[in-house]
Amino acid sequence: MNSFGRITLGVILGCGALLMLPVVLTRLMENRLIYFPPRFPEGFDPSPTAFSGLESVWIKTSDGVKLNAFYFASSTRAKTLLCFHGNAENIAHGLAQWRDFSGLGLNVLALDYRGYGRSEGSPDERGVYCDAEAAYAYLVGQRDIKAMDIVLYGRSLGGAVAIDLAAQRHCGGLIIESSFTSGRSMARRAFPIPFFEYVPKSRFDSLDKIKRIRSPILIMHGTHDTVVPHSMGQQLYQTANEPKYFFAINGAEHNDVYDVGGFAYLERIKQFIMSLPKSSPSPVIP
User: Fold this and answer.
1) Is 221 in the active site?
2) What is the pLDDT of residues 133-186, one digit of tens each?
3) What is the structure's pLDDT at 225?
């Protein structure tokens, strides 16, 4: 090979390496790019004396990871809301929201995924699904709560977790807030580079999974969400099976649906849960 050929080959290989570098780095650092697991605020005391009615519990997953969760017990024979928070959050951040949910006459279990809050481990897609399964098993096995009395609630990332769980386990209902259609759709928004959405291993295929769910579904989304667009919430709604409901929170962005929605937000959740039947489980669509 002459010198010109060697130079040409070197340029081609160099360009190829440069093109592959983002792919390799993304694969190596994928979980760090996706998950932002905050720990508890310094000095935070999640004890019943500090927060009336709160019980801090520990749940062990099938792969041996210890997870922390907050449990609020209702004095009535109520439905139980199993809550999955969004990314860059932990259960301490949502404490006011969990208490408001409890004030609707519900039992509430809010879970921190592995690596979040005081939970052990490091998050990945398979891991957070495993965490959700463990929380569900805890309610059924240790709290003696029937599957059809469990309502799943998931916000943003937690919506994908809740949808995955509802596609595999019986539940009384499903509430999805500000969540996305798939991991690939979010990768496409974050990095509008041709075919880049196929690089990450994490899929979070909520749009596909929601087709398999027969439980009643309430989807809520802020009209001004610039992180996960309102249109993604509408896509999830359009793909879901009946019975299904969509509640748009006018003026709300990604992280303030609960605050902007206020009384109407809580009332809509209460109405949805009160409408749920107490009958035999509806099967998951194979």
Assistant:
1) no
2) 999 999 999 999 999 999 999 999 999 999 999 999 999 999 999 999 998 888
3) 98
**Catalytic option among 85, 112, 131, 156:** 156
Buried b (16+ CB within 10 A) or exposed e, 196-208: bbebbebebbbbe
Residue 85 annotated as catalytic = no
Domain ranges of the chain: 35-274
Q: Which of 85, 170, 221, 254 is catalytic?
A: 254
Spatial separation of the C-alpha atoms in residues 4 and 6, rounded to whole Å = 5
Q: Which fold has domain 35-274?
A: Rossmann fold (3.40.50)
Q: Annotated catalytic, 254?
A: yes
